[in-house]
Batch of 2 targets.
Target 1
Amino acid sequence: MILASQSPRRIELMREAGFDTRVIPANIDETALPDEGPFDLVERLARAKAAAVAKEHAEEGEPVVAADTIVALGGELLGKPADEADARRMLHALSGKTHQVATGVCIVRDGSAESFVDITDVTFYELSYDEIDAYVATGEPMDKAGAYGIQGQHGRMLVEKIDGDFYNVVGLPIAKVVRALSRT
Ligand SMILES: Cc1cn([C@H]2C[C@H](O)[C@@H](COP(=O)(O)OP(=O)(O)OP(=O)(O)O)O2)c(=O)[nH]c1=O
């Protein structure tokens, strides 16, 4: 199969699940549409990534999997931080609150597409300024939606509880993906 993603976590999850995975990242515009909600956004982007790669690269019968992950806090969408100041701003916003992590997944095979969105609630401990500065200094937040990685050695210390699939927070709800692949 083809994984249309540059995310090291997604690549590792697909390979650990036993798939012979060709990695061909999609290059699409990830800007949200005006008034687009988080769930519509991640599903649309996953569909666009899978379609773009399938059109150019997929062989007959070869499935293409794509995903997109975003953090939603109330009405605010948090993607990847632009810089360290942006990462600090996001982490302050998440401190002491529950947010949602939404991952859209799309599987395209032989021209037909199936997509879904998985949602996990994540609750952060209250974080002090010093804790946030120290976390940003580790470099972990920079390429991750919401400016944290739950799987990271430092990021895991921010999280009080989750409700939903852990792997969805990491960027790919692997059990659902494998079940969907076995159906397509
Ligand atoms: C919230 C959270 C996000 N993330 C990551 C998963 C995704 O890689 C990233 C969100 O960015 P995405 O735009 O979903 O994906 P990507 O740009 O890394 O890869 P591609 O578009 O090629 O598929 O944030 C974590 O690793 N841990 C976390 O706890």
Note: The mean pLDDT is 97.
Target 2
Amino acid sequence: MAYKKEDHYDEHITNPLTTHYKSVIELLGEDADREGLQKTPERVAKAMQYLTQGYQMNAADILNSAKFKEPYSEMVIVKDIELYSLCEHHMLPFIGKAHIAYIPNGYITGLSKIARVVDCFARRLQVQERLTHQILDAIQEALAPLGVAVVIEAKHMCMMMRGVQKQNSVTTTSAFSGQFEHNETRSEFLRLIAADLV
Ligand SMILES: Nc1nc2c(ncn2[C@@H]2O[C@H](COP(=O)(O)OP(=O)(O)OP(=O)(O)O)[C@@H](O)[C@H]2O)c(=O)[nH]1
Ligand SMILES: [Zn+2]
């Protein structure tokens, strides 16, 4: 994402966020003025804007920016797209992979645009279930394909670093539309994302 280079941070957001994070550091019992922490509030303010930059993105614009007329009508699968999101309950990361497929109906999109749509919705405060559906809906609406499939596997830091403290649980969510609602097509997709082809 080329977006949010240093000079793209909005000072109207960065400045008050910096003030708030200084208070957070102090409330946590630290000396916000000690050398190592002096620039931390501003760094965190920028990091949080980076991690939530999906709010400034539009999935339809992303997909339509490279939409091509093409008669290919088999499944297109982009798998193992890494994703970094923040759970909306604790604002802690959840990290994983998305596997996405669609069956074109006259139009294809640039492959990178599929990954960008993942970022568009992942870089927000999220729950994994909604993230899964938002990706599906965006592709369905922009390309009107014969079907879309989205599977996301993720590990939630709020279940690992705190709370229930389970280090190995992985959450899988899925959403299917159109032809992927039929068992045969869905099974082909699931088989192909499980396969080690490259
Ligand atoms: N369904 C869903 N739940 C999530 C997701 N991310 C975090 N959670 C859960 O959100 C729930 C919030 O539950 P609460 O009981 O309100 O919060 P809590 O007291 O911090 O809960 P614990 O994590 O169990 O300590 C927890 O069960 C989290 O595991 C997500 O993407 N989807
Ligand atoms: Zn959480």
Note: The chain has two domains: 6-51, 59-194.
